[in-house]
Specification:
The structure is a homodimer.
Chain A (H helix, E strand, L loop, with lengths): L15 H4 L11 E7 L9 E4 L4 E9 L5 E9 L6 E4 L1 E4 L2 E6 L5 E11 L1 H14 L5 H16 L7 H15 L11 H8 L5 E2 L4 E6 L6 E5 L19 H13 L4 E4 L47 H13 L3 E7 L7 H5 L15 E3 L2 E3 L12 H16 L5 E5 L6 H14 L4 E5 L4 H9 L4 E3 L8 H11 L9 E3 L9 H5 L1 H15 L2 E5 H5 L32 H13 L10 E3 L6 E6 L9 E6 L6 E6 L12 E6 L5 E5 L2 E6 L6 E8 L18
Helix pairs in contact in A: 2-3, 3-4, 6-7, 9-10, 14-16
């Protein structure tokens, strides 16, 4: 230490000895790696990805000063030792990205490393000096030393061809010749060959890979007991799982991917609900399928009037045969008649009067349902039994579960149960039906639900929809996958009640184009059912409490629209992306305009404009940031309406649209940009698409 | 398990045995705790807080279902076993907050716990049933059991008075009397007394507590060698640290808190820079104080022409005597003449021709500076020596360091050095002068710099300022504390060059009111200096390379404005808050309007409107969300301009302002709301302020 003459009595620098033991064990890398995405709560939960679909890894990687840094992602399935390393591309502002496509279901992990490239720093600096006419004799010698070091201890990714090229470069540099360094493919070679003093992102970050239907799919729900008119039974008799099979062609013809049915289990009779949620059931009332359990069994049984366990397997197989999947509804509700009530009385809360605590939301009572007590001392047996419900149906051919009200069961149970089941069955998909507060929905998504119902049904204005999908496509994109439903068998929104056909059309288009997964409560959506039970956003004469019959051949059915939407989604994969959604201003606040692109880079970009007001025509200019669809400012391009069929030639960012309940409520455009002629005068395909 | 008759050959539920060992050791709490703030990278870095200033702890706490949850924060200094527990208040949507005021410097930790309150759930449910006229006989019995459990094993926070009240309640409930439960203070009592099945936020989350000046202060910088005209020396002679002492009264009179001076060390002569950054120094050129080191010494020495190490101590003491603090500039640059160059040649990079690598940004060269090599094998000695520089000056009375270009030194060094020094000297403050990319600035803030220079100088429009301060007040608020400077000795923005006096006024007001810490490069700001060196945003005839003399008594000096701004900041602590900053729309896009409140809840809310355009008058309505200042929609209130002195009676959210270069460029209003008379007709002080 260089000390000045003592000027004060104290002895500076005497802390050395005390701190010497607190140094890091090795000189730390100068590089910093901050992982960005996919990352959920710092790695406490897994991100989500789909098999066969590109995953984007993003990290911030930087060092002190102005040296060039390189970054690399290492990705591997937890069940294999194979690791893929992917060089990361700089995006500017210290951010890097890499893409990979998982080819195996289950848990994956990734790690990002970053390091200073002295070779690339030297190469770019020397090139700048050459360009400025400076003498680079010393730089050539520095480069020769760097090349010699690379050849002496190359990184293991170096190829023989790399080393041969380095040998040639070394010889040139030793003779003072720097001509070769302006070639930009040295960047990749140095990335492969240079020894690394690398930093990494810490512990490996988890990603759970599930089937594509975990993220992207079209869902259709119906009540099997209301399918009698489809089959060979007496006209007024209830339908069964077998008559439900007869309904499948109709659903497959509309292009749906998932067929979802309410619980199939025996329905309790004690305190059974009557029609329209009445507490006084009449003779012959069929009860709610959510009041589960009777002397015929509980969650491992099928209601005799619907069929048998084998019929569920047959229904699942019939779905498979049509390219669809069956989703079973698992509701951990017990009717007072559920076998668990007598077999496991300690799984329920007993009141001081000896009765079992029914569900309530004071002062409301739901006496047909006994909630399970997740604070029971017998929790391990309870958890095991509930997980076995899923296992039971998995063994019988079901791989998708719509889970009813998961937010009223302990979070720790779900985390354990989904983890256990996913380990053995990574193909299984859980949809969380938690219409509740945001933190609760988000936690369920974090702990493992593949996808979640959303607030879509209650986001009506263009502003609300934009704000909501901006949140879904950024803040929660790593873990919460939305499934958007205009209606469900519990939800008939005021907008659908009053908006007429145009309202149904607008809402179906919004759900199918904004959200990778969407669904409808089928027959009542197709047939424009709008009658609410008094004062609530629910259906009158609801199928939850009675058997209905539907004429699906009605001329005014929306089935053709639903079929077309599903067809367009298949043909234009950009529509099923969420991360790329970008909203664009419109002059009219009832017009919602957004674009999406295909992350695989194959499909055309899409540009959707929807009139969200079912009552009036809206018109005006949309102002599209063309960069969002890969076009240059002031480009000319064609937009082809995949719904209406028309093609428009648009120019620049501002273009006119008008959408009306009396005409089209939306455009679902694909965007076809032209390269500017001046930029590529010899281009023999002037109309080729920019992606 | 309740199994149906076998219908398929497979045996359901056989996974039990395999999973039994994977249960959690104990039944997990039903409650989820997700800490929100202060939290930096999930707890990898410490949040920041100031001694004596309220800290807000925020967490999301929730459970399954609809039970009431309670939350509590436990806070303690790492150097003490004392832990404060603070009940957290619900903010809605599952978010809770608690406030505490640290009374000790150094590392603190906090933890959040949450639990289901069965007692409060019961109390509210029963009250709802009573209100609905339902029979609550069973509920009284349930309550009696809950009370008995609380009395049997109360939480340790229960007081004797609590237990006595519980005894009374128990007796009443046993006789079926539920009258007492409507009293809301049971909430607090149950919080204290009920046994808890709690979840916590995981590992304790760190917070570093530093002196108030770490967050809030007014900074003034000047060159001691340009203070000769203040003192008893020949008129053209350079100033010294002693003449700098004579400058302090002027600075203290303006109300500044921190006096910051450039490096005081010996200046090298090899490749010394001449006036205006010329590479050909002339005889008599004094050199840049950033080219540190000469035969007179390096970072432990003082340039002989400035004085001695004791003079620094005297200057620091003279600042202290005036209620200010001295900030020393630590720049780890070495001139070729620095003693380290010969004593530690391995701390520098040697080129193949035997020369030492100078600083460069190819093709530019900075041959007067040798950068330290943080990749040296002798890194422990280098780190130790650099940390000793801080220790040396701390031992001589300096507690604030403005660190020059920390982003060109290894991050790992800063994390280690600041950690080491802070452990022994928690009173020391480090200001990061890293005018570089966001991730780099943020990382330096995370790893321990108390505060950071900002992009403020280059944020000119109201939109830019709003966007930047929205980011500073949300995304980075837990770790990056901004210090906003309209100018520095390196920065004379184009706006200041051309905006005239109104530009200086507008920029000073913006810095002083938007940012808790702000500063000016003093004499040249006071005296409206606007001459740039050709083509760069830097000063002509810069003090960095020559001695200047200033007449601070000029009639047009901005000193009175600066003094008034600092006075207003002291009188109205809301101005020094950042988290509460809320921006409000204005009709005119050159008017910036924002409000702030005092987190201690004592000072008045403030409402600031600034004309950011120095060239023209701007007028229009501002549209203030009155909730941001604690007023009701459509309130009437007085706004008192602390700058201009006028008072206006405003009503509702939209009110008119006009601000002009020829009149006032800004209003700094305090806001004085009246309680609506109807709400409190007997109020004998109708004008009392709502805070």
């Amino acid at each position: 230490m260089n000390m000045p003459p003592p000027t004060t009595p104290s002895t500076p620098g005497t802390a050395d000895a005390a701190t010497a033991g607190r140094f890091p064990a090795h000189r730390p890398s100068r590089t910093i790696v901050e992982p960005v995405s996919p990352m959920v709560d710092g790695g406490a939960f897994a991100g989500k990805a789909s098999i066969g679909r590109p995953v984007r890894i993003v990290a911030d990687v930087f060092t002190d000063g102005h040296d060039v840094v390189f970054a690399e992602a290492a990705v591997g399935s937890a069940s294999s030792d194979a690791v893929r390393t992917i060089p990361m591309a700089p995006l500017g502002n210290d951010r890097f990205e890499a893409w990979f496509t998982p080819d195996e279901l289950g848990r994956w992990n990734y790690e990002v490393t970053g390091w200073v490239s002295h070779a690339e720093t030297w190469r770019l600096g020397t090139a700048a000096k050459v360009a400025a006419g400076l003498d680079v004799e010393v730089e050539a010698a520095i480069g020769a030393a760097l090349v010699a070091a690379m050849r002496a201890t190359p990184h293991h990714a170096a190829t023989d061809a790399d080393l041969a090229r380095l040998a040639t470069l070394g010889t040139a540099l030793e003779s003072g010749n720097t001509e070769a360094i302006t070639d930009d493919d040295w960047t990749q070679l140095f990335h492969r060959c240079e020894p690394r003093d690398a930093a990494d992102s810490g512990a490996p970050l988890p990603i759970d890979v599930d089937p594509l239907l975990g993220a992207i799919g079209s869902w259709y729900s119906f009540f099997p007991r209301s399918t009698a008119s489809d089959g060979d039974v007496a006209p007024d008799a209830p339908g069964t799982l077998r008559t439900a099979i007869d309904r499948l062609d109709h659903i497959a013809d509309m292009g749906f991917d998932v067929v979802y049915i309410p619980p199939v289990h025996p329905i309790g009779t004690t305190n059974r609900k009557g029609r329209d949620n009445s507490t006084n059931a009449q003779d012959g009332d069929v009860g709610s399928p959510y009041a589960i359990g009777s002397p015929d069994g509980g969650h491992f049984a099928v209601a005799p009037e619907l069929g048998t366990v084998d019929d569920v397997t047959a229904l699942a197989a019939a779905c498979d045969a049509r390219g669809m999947k069956l989703a079973l509804d698992i509701a951990f509700n017990c009717s007072p008649d559920h076998p668990w009530v007598s077999e496991h009385p300690d799984w329920f809360v007993r009141r001081p009067d000896g009765s079992i605590q029914y569900a309530e939301n004071p002062p409301k009572k739901y006496e047909d349902i006994y909630p399970l007590d997740f604070e029971t001392d017998d929790w391990q047996a309870l958890w095991t039994e509930l997980a076995d419900v899923f296992r039971f149906w998995i063994e019988r051919g079901v791989t998708i579960f719509r889970v009813d009200n998961p937010h009223t069961k302990a979070f720790a149970f779900w985390e354990w149960a989904i983890g256990e089941i996913r380990t053995a069955h990574p193909e299984v998909i859980f949809l969380s039906e938690a219409f509740t507060r945001p933190r609760v929905m988000q936690r369920l998504a974090k702990l493992g639900f593949n996808q979640s119902y959303t607030y879509f049904a209650w986001r009506h204005t263009a502003h609300e929809l934009r704000e909501y999908f901006e949140e879904l496509s950024t803040e929660t994109i790593d873990f919460l996958r939305p499934n958007a439903w205009p209606n469900t068998h519990d939800i008939l929104t005021e907008q659908l009640q009053h908006g007429g056909r145009a309202g149904f059309v607008s809402r179906a288009i919004l759900a199918a184009t904004m959200s990778p997964s969407w669904g409808v409560y089928g027959p009542l959506f197709e047939l424009l059912e709008t009658s609410p039970r008094d004062g609530v956003e629910d259906y009158l004469d609801s199928e939850k409490y009675e058997v209905r019959h539907w004429n699906l051949d009605r001329a005014d059915s929306l089935a053709p629209l639903l079929a077309r939407l599903n067809e367009i989604r298949r043909q234009h994969p950009a529509l099923c992306d969420l991360a790329s959604i970008t909203f664009h201003p419109c002059d009219d606040e009832s017009l919602l305009c957004f674009t999406k692109t295909d992350p695989a880079g194959i499909g055309d970009p899409v540009l959707v404009v929807v009139n969200v007001d079912p009552f009036a025509e809206h018109r005006g200019f949309v102002d599209v940031d063309l960069a969002a669809v890969g076009l240059e400012y002031e480009s000319s391009y064609d937009v082809v309406d995949r719904l209406g069929g028309t093609t428009h030639h648009w120019r620049g960012n501002r273009n006119y649209v008008e959408l009306s309940p009396y005409g089209a409520m939306a455009h679902i455009f694909t965007v076809h940009g032209h390269r500017p002629a001046a930029a590529d005068a010899t281009n023999d395909d002037p109309g080729r698409t920019i992606r």
